[in-house]
Amino acid sequence: MKIKDQSVALGDSWTPDIARKIDVPMEGRFTGEVTFDGTNYKFFQHQRAGLEIFSSNLWWDKAERSVDDYIVSQITLTADDFATPRGVHVGSTREEMNNAYGIGQVDNDSGEQWITYALGKKALSFEIKGGNVVKITMNYDNGSSE
């Protein structure tokens, strides 16, 4: 994901340098603990208009990192000035998204339509309204249905 000419991806270390370059606060708002693979991990939300980043200490115990080492665990875009590596952005048409990513898993939930593409433990999801992308989320799948 390109944000202000800075590449940000799931699993990247969450550092003051990255936070400064993409113009979000380094210190986030604690949003709770989420269970992945039977272990609870802490999640923090960092945001500005059109952009939410969640950092977490996800898998610190399995990756031989410190409990205080945080990684980018979710990226949510709601502004059209950010794009996925394949050029899809808020405002793109469903056809443009399908051309870039193919046909994804469609979910209709509470009046919202989401199209998701899974790659291992990572998921790229697009919310569609009126034939256009209105929200893009990249996150890890914790294996539980919410």
Provide keyphrases for this structure.
single chain; 146 residues; mainly beta; eight-stranded antiparallel beta sheet; two-stranded antiparallel sheet
Explain the overall architecture.
- By secondary structure, the chain is mainly β.
- 10% of the residues lie in helices and 45% in strands.
- It has an eight-stranded antiparallel beta sheet, with helices on one face. A two-stranded antiparallel ribbon has the order 1-2.
- The longest helix is centred in the C-terminal third of the chain and has 8 residues, at 94-101.
- It is globular, with a radius of gyration of 15 Å.
- The two termini are 26 Å apart.
- The mean pLDDT is 92.
Summarize the structure.
The protein has helices at residues 16-21, 94-101; strands spanning 2-3, 6-7, 29-36, 39-48, 51-56, 71-77, 105-109, 112-119, 122-129, 132-140. The strands form two sheets. Strands 3-4-5-6-10-9-8-7 form an eight-stranded antiparallel beta sheet, covered by helices on one side. Strands 1-2 form a two-stranded antiparallel sheet. The chain is mostly beta strands and 146 residues long.
